[in-house]
Specification:
Length: about 220
Amino acid sequence: MEDTTYSIPRIGDLAPDFEAMTTIGKLRFSDYIKGKWTILFSHPADFTPVCTTELSGFAEEKAFFEERNTNLIGLSIDSIHSHIAWVNNVREKTGVRFHFPIIADIDMKVAKLYGMLQPGESETAAVRAVFFIDPAGKIRLIMYYPLNVGRNMEEIKRVLTALQTADEYKVALPLNWTKGEKVIVPPPKTMNELEERLASNLEMVDFYLAKKELS
């Protein structure tokens, strides 16, 4: 019996590289993501209702992602001709243009490489995967949704902001954190750090859980 399971890259792994044809031409993924944050997301099929709302949502947040040095790139197991027709159809019907490239993964090469094909859901359509990749090419966060449930754009924006904030300030983020709220300071690792923590003006639930505002 043929094994139809595919491995999923893990958080902390380097994003697997590939070459693919897209709506902006052929590209090598490692070149496209170099020095940028990148969100790679898959959708089941062109000319489908949920996918249309999702990709329109990404397109409408163009300014948000540009301000955060973040590239977008989509994927489905459709031909380049289907992608181009769909992009044009959405632009004609709604005025929304998908400015980001969409990978034509008709041979399922990239979908298999990233574990986007999950046979319990479908063997011929990619699930709704989202990979957050940092400027060093490392996978930092992964989301998976089934075929019939659309993603939450506010959560995608929130976690991108959280990842970038955590990196910049070397902090952690609590439950439901949004920009402007207090962050968590890493716990002390030595007794000297503990004494400094206890003498600080941090907001402390206890020595291991302390918060502060970012300046």
